[in-house]
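Question: I have long wanted to understand how a fold can be written as tokens. Here is the record:
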Amino acid sequence: MTTSTKPRGVSAAWQDAWLLDGVRTPFVDYNGALAQVSPTDLGIKTARAVLDRAAVPAADVGTVITGNMTQSSFDAYMLPRHVGLYAGVPIETPAHMVQRVCGTGIEVLMQGADAVSHRDAGVALCVGAESMSRNPLALYAHRDGARMGSVAFKDFLWESLLDPAPGRTMGQTAEALAREYQITRAEVDAFAARSFDRALAAQEILADEIVPVENETFQREGFADRGIALRHKSAQQVRDTHVRPSSAEALAALRPAFGGVQTAGNSSGIVDGAAAGLVCSGIYARDHRATPLARLVAGVAVGCPPEVMGIGPVPAICAVLERVGLRLDEVDRIEINEAFGAQVMACVRALGLDEEKLNVNGGAIAIGHPLAATGIRLSVTVARELRRKGLRYGIASACIGGGQGIALLLENPDVV
């Protein structure tokens, strides 16, 4: 384990916070059918869908908690409020934004659990939405003018991969872990091929968490219409588009992206998408005779060295287990976001993790990683897998650019 000191971080445990249900859009490749859709509208779509699936009236929502990393529309400040309003929640229901980079979606659910446990929310509508395609070309520090020839717009999507504190890109932090844990290119390609194979084999399972996306108008009386318009008159989007047959041999033919073991094929896919979950109090669930998908048991966010940010799930998972007094071998399923193949493999080796419990339906290398939506997908996926297999405990975890890790422990109520 790279970190030498005991994790501090922030943690919480909840006795009576429940994930009622969760859905997501298909995750669609960069510059694909969702490329011109605002993340606000992707968020509205999933918010409406999860309320409908869980049969929860929008009027019951006590707070709206959203995540979005890239401000990819001019009304981005309004994203939390607009997601709530166009999902039909009461005007009086507040909304706010969460930002914890790749851990944002998990943080959204953790704050949802806090809201229903300590802030009388009753039901928290939790949404993560991201348009990677709409990352802007940005120009900062220009308000006082620019000298001739000095105007330099930069690609926000590319530039945001650099952490200037250690002077490393996110990919270079994965390469550092590959060197530290002696992970070879062949091993990373084999790991990536397995991610694709598992996602291909799990298409029916994954389809159950997906709400199809098509051209649609969102209305609320007294407000301007919003909506989704798919690119190039695309047909309805039903499934993830990044999942495809990808053998280790085919992956081996790709060029290194950062001078080492990582390539475009064994790193997370760049996709657009959104995910939503409903978190409620036990009182609400019992009063409405709801059947929750999972109990939210505990969550932890903790820092780690920025130069090896990908190891973040290790101290986070260790800390959440310590928080509740569980051992790793008592956890039946674990979802660790596959930001980079070598990064996840380093976490596996540091934890001594049984890989048969890890990302059993594929991960972000195959499915893709729309930053703020990913954590909700991980949590919903592991909760559904616990229910499907009759298992008790699962963890959703992610590394976080800048040097953090986050982990959320969930429990299947049917196995208690």
Remarks:
- The CA atoms of residues 40 and 75 lie 9 Å apart.
